[in-house]
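Action item from last meeting closed. Structure (146 res):
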């Protein structure tokens, strides 16, 4: 169970930053993390670059008790989604894949229009993910009632 009233929230935040520079390209919060979006993306990018430099590897996930940060390269950018810490890995990775795919599709467009399209798609994904989480919780409750 998650932070808000004991319910899992699903998709919490989306960050997209340039792989090489860490410059924030897009950020959307669904109410979990507070703080400067540029600072957050810069920090996430720094972790990515540190691991690439020191270990010649890349970060796929950072897990905490309340949140999980999942990363995926998308062209010249990195997509990071923040999900509830209790979400299962398989579902979370499908969510990340959906967001990254939406970004790649939107990045073929031009200017602000592409980011508007991407934001709308993120909203759709967050809404559908939230519905799935609520169904899952309802089924879990039915199992408990036996």
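Sequence:
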């Amino acid at each position: 169970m998650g932070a808000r009233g004991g319910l899992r929230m699903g998709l919490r935040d989306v960050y997209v930053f340039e792989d090489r520079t860490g410059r924030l390209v897009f950020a959307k919060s669904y109410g979990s993390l507070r703080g400067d979006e540029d600072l957050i993306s810069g920090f996430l990018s720094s972790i990515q670059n540190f691991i690439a430099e020191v270990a010649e590897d890349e970060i796929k996930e950072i897990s905490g008790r309340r949140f999980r940060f999942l990363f995926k390269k998308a062209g010249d950018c990195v997509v990071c989604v923040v999900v509830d810490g209790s979400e299962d890995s398989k579902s979370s990775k499908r969510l990340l894949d959906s967001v990254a795919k939406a970004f790649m599709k939107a990045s073929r467009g031009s200017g602000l229009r592409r980011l508007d399209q991407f934001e709308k798609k993120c909203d759709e994904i967050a809404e559908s993910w939230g519905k799935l989480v609520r169904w899952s919780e309802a089924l879990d409750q039915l199992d408990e009632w036996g």
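Note appended to the action item: The longest helix spans residues 111-145.
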